[in-house]
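Forum: Protein Structure Q&A
Topic: Joint prediction for protein chains with partners

I've read a bunch of threads here and the consensus seems to be that you should model interacting components together rather than docking separate models afterwards. I'd like to see that in practice. Below is the full input, 616 residues plus whatever partners are listed. Could one of the regulars post the assembled result?
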Amino acid sequence: MDSLQLGTYEFSSRLILGTGKFSSTRAMLDAVRASGTGLVTVALRRFNREQAEDDLFGPLSEIGGITLMPNTSGAATAREAVRAAHISRELSGSPFVKVEIHPNPHHLMPDPIETWEACRILASEGFLVMPYIPADPVLAKRLEDVGCTSVMPLGSAIGSGQGLSTAGMLKIIIRDSSIPVIVDAGLRSPSEACAAMEMGCAAVLVNSAIAVANDPTAMASAFAEAVQAGRRAKRAGVMPRSGTAVATSPLTSFLGTAP
Amino acid sequence: MNALPAWLTDTRLSAEIVPLLSGRSEASLEQLASEAKAATLRRFGRIVSLYAPLYLSNHCSSGCAYCGFASDRKSPRRRLEPDEIKRELAAMKALGIGDVLLLTGERTIETGYDYLRQAVERAAGIMPRVAVEAFPMTVAEYRGLAECGCTGITIYQETYDPENYGKLHRWGPKRDFLERLETPERALQGGIRSIGVGALLGLSEPVAEATALARHVMHLCRSYWKAGVSVSFPRIRPQEGGYQPAWPVDDRFLARMIFVFRIAMPDVDLVLSTRENPAFRDGMAGLGITRMSIASRTTVGGYHDPEGAGTSQFEVSDDRSAEEFCRALRSKELEPVFKNWDPAFNGPIVTEEAGCP
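Posted by a regular:
Agreed with the consensus. Here's the joint model:
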């Protein structure tokens, strides 16, 4: 079976869902179910054990067959992300952590320096570390070196819906990586998720595009199908694009004819 | 008075926003609303973060002409004692509130820094997120608050018109326009993570006020790249003292101003309090506004004992219960969020990282 391997975990779906930004917990849960995902991320700041109606963690943990990946959104430094990871593991029991460190609370771009430091510490402590990163091939390899389970480069800014604006860098990351590459952030439509999979991503993570759709449930299943199609196309071998111009006079005539 | 800072007279933003604010642009109010809605949805999704104010005291040493707590008002003065603060926070917590704004007036003997710091410490033990709206402080004092769990500071300039500012702030420490203008920066230098700014609408000509406020936001974002900046849109409300606004701001202008801010600064939190009436609040939720106060009591001690708590700073216009308000948000496909922060992230942004002066 063509499953997604993350550490010792196997997932049949290659779509990962974010759980913020939905109009209600029920809408989020319906989308999670419709997506067929086996892995969802939830922010520690949205864990609310004291008020069930406001809590995302409780209802998610009750859906069967779903693994939770707490994220450290809100952390501005490695120290804060490590603290958040410890608390999240305590509360959720999940070995996964999505490291999200964005010191600027407006554009939410990940901090490569603090992210590397947090990942180094958390990987050495046995977490399955999934860092959200800028699409930087060098950083991706540095994170692989410290023991991350995957890298999650951004397609474009969180919530921007600008799709795969980092495609050039993503291709290098995918080519060079020995661990799964998962595009996280910026995807607007299923066709972009499909393109990411055709490019060779191991999975994609989607939140805003599903959460703010008029019908999040239908959009979740549309993404699920697009991800499957993209994956199948990748495995089937996408026809190479013709990009070579044909010179009017042969370029290699000086080499003579073959013997 | 010393010279005004360069950012306050920087005209770069003017060409973009003044025509929109003054209604001279071709964009209709409806078009602006639609753009603001789309921008909000993209960045913030369908959630509205909620907070509630807790008035610690009505002691004040200043003479703001428009405020019900000014030091010449006749109402009895009162401050919450530690056990009362605990009781109020417990009453708020029972309403589901997880984000509290502690308020007090200008510094007095009864309500000075130590009093405030202790209140923050107490609140941070109970609430996931604690912010403060109080007197201007020193960098070291702000650092002290950040260390005991204060995440945000709200400080309104009230008016960005220096001349008007001088007339309205009749006495007390708040008379110094520039000192107040520099306060958000001192808070950020002290490691406070987010700063809330605003102009009290009605005090001066509104297009100029909105423009200056936008410049202030841009200046803070540029100079302190790790700072969260949020903008509030308070309008003058009836209060003891009976001040009548010289420049009344109507609903259409206020809505326009909020749309323009959302379009010009798509990733900044925009805040609307219970000063506004239910129809306006419900209408604006999701059209730019991303943060709202709920179930507010603007009296000292008003959560535990709503009837016996005395005079308010201003009259609340939306007095719906938390439950009722959340129902209204949900009917608009918006999710009210009570906890959108975790104490794991509390503590000052460390000095060498705290932006540049």
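The longest helix of chain B spans residues 206-223.
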